[in-house]
């Protein structure tokens, strides 16, 4: 790698007579910088003077470098900058490193102890930086590093004065990073832990020897180099290790139920666990984003309050990725033994997608408090007395992609009295990007909690339908594995009934039983393969009732009846003849008989967002290059189809017809592509810019290739002189 140099740069390093400052000065000088070595020369508490700076300057000169000493206090920072201008005529880099300690417990700390620390650390950095600021603005270049401490970030006993100053430097750097950005002035913060005059009798001797300043100096040198990309960063480094700090905030929660409700001390206490819940915490980079975030949250609160005006709802978030989809597919019997299942098991498959029943999972409420809160007076519901009775899912828009986040609204729409038991009908509305993507409905049986005088039926229920009274039109069977329940539970249902023999015995089963949703997943796969073209996007809705349990290792037999675009089905256990799923049906957009999946190059429906993609400009440049180098293009002699995706869905296609020397939007105008590449718009741009290695993208499933894989490698030389692809 080419050495990073500082030729023709002038650096000012405060507190450079020893320790970290000396290491910074020596390294910068060795890389060509002219250095002002500032050091008042005092002890750790700021008292006394010495000639440390002269010794450092002499060491730099002995090694062929250029440096000058400065003994001014950082509180008179303008004098330090004058030294640089007088000797070198410019300044490019300022490292605010000077510091002292006056450690005392807070009760014993004097005002002088406080003022001295603030003066050297915080005011000193302010004065020196302000003295150089206008120079940086005029030359439209500058690099500043503030020095903070873990005592500032986390606090430390006996260092209230020091901690306050060091955290103050973080705030100063954050604001200067904003003010200096348009002038190419970058301001960052280092949080070092190293052996120095400040720590020589604080750290254990063996640690003091290991914490060499020379291990941190390269980090700071990079932070002041012209190529350093960060601005406003807080970098922690010690012992040859570096990490980044930044502030994050919890998702938080409203402090009242409805917009018209008052905020009370009690409502704050009730909401407090969610206020401080740091799961799914996130970072905001600018103060303007705080305002936008607040407005969005208030709008969301008002919208949720409107939706919840009639029924109290339970809101949650659900994240998923390709690994979750594959794990679920394995849990419901998909296998590499069946080639048509590969699209559900291999994240780099050109047609990789979720099984439709996977999306039942975000709306599951078996562990949600919503059922328990909705029980009639004197009745209760918890994991010991609830059973999953029926399930429904209906897709409302585009089929969800292979990764993403859902916002889920669960609410009890009705409570039925079945005599000995109650049935809670729970609706779930699942939103993605603020759009209702699909809805589900669960019937949750609450054993032993009936007899409260409620209705037996509900008009709000999506009911099961009896199968036609004729022999089944199709039958598929599949044996479950002995480990099926152990595998399926990894998709989120960790009820011990499905894994713990003791719990199963207490519940009246000979061994742990299979999840009802796992059995439904098997059946839905069978219907999809037989009548849905094995294409999940072809599914409109699924409904089923769970009649009896299944033991892992038993064989599931799915019987199907075709009625228009609806496939009725029921599932039996082959070994016993028991019906385990009844009254079930799957509604399809169209019937595609057989096991074949839809052709992978079927033209996608393009969303409105596909009209202006970042990659459009890339393909236009490729077109120019192909036209300028026709012989080079024809030497490749292949046709490539690019499927450009967004949120896992193809939204635009481009063809590189290098046989004819033509690049155009859409599918090949004649014949099929030799090689098809599927990649998201953003990932393609990263590949083209060189920030994402194509091989890495392929191995991580970000770039999917079908057809002639070797031809994909021939694109490199063709486009090497122009856009990388």
Automatic annotation (TrEMBL):
It is found in: Peroxisome. SUPFAM superfamilies: NAD(P)-binding Rossmann-fold domains, SCP-like, Thioesterase/thiol ester dehydrase-isomerase. Coiled coil: none annotated. Residues 9-201 form the Ketoreductase domain. Gene3D superfamilies: 1.10.287.4290, Hotdog Thioesterase, NAD(P)-binding Rossmann-like Domain, SCP2 sterol-binding domain. Pathway: Lipid metabolism; fatty acid beta-oxidation. It comes from the Eukaryota. InterPro entries: HotDog_dom_sf (IPR029069), KR_dom (IPR057326), MaoC-like_dom (IPR002539), MFE-2_N (IPR054357), NAD(P)-bd_dom_sf (IPR036291), Peroxisomal_Beta-Oxidation (IPR051687), Sc_DH/Rdtase_CS (IPR020904), SCP2_sterol-bd_dom (IPR003033). Keywords: Fatty acid metabolism, Lipid metabolism, Lyase, Oxidoreductase, Peroxisome. Its main location: other. Belongs to the short-chain dehydrogenases/reductases (SDR) family. PANTHER family: DEHYDROGENASES, SHORT CHAIN (PTHR45024), SCP2 DOMAIN-CONTAINING PROTEIN (PTHR45024:SF2). This is Ketoreductase domain-containing protein. The lineage of its organism: Eukaryota, Metazoa, Ecdysozoa, Arthropoda, Hexapoda.
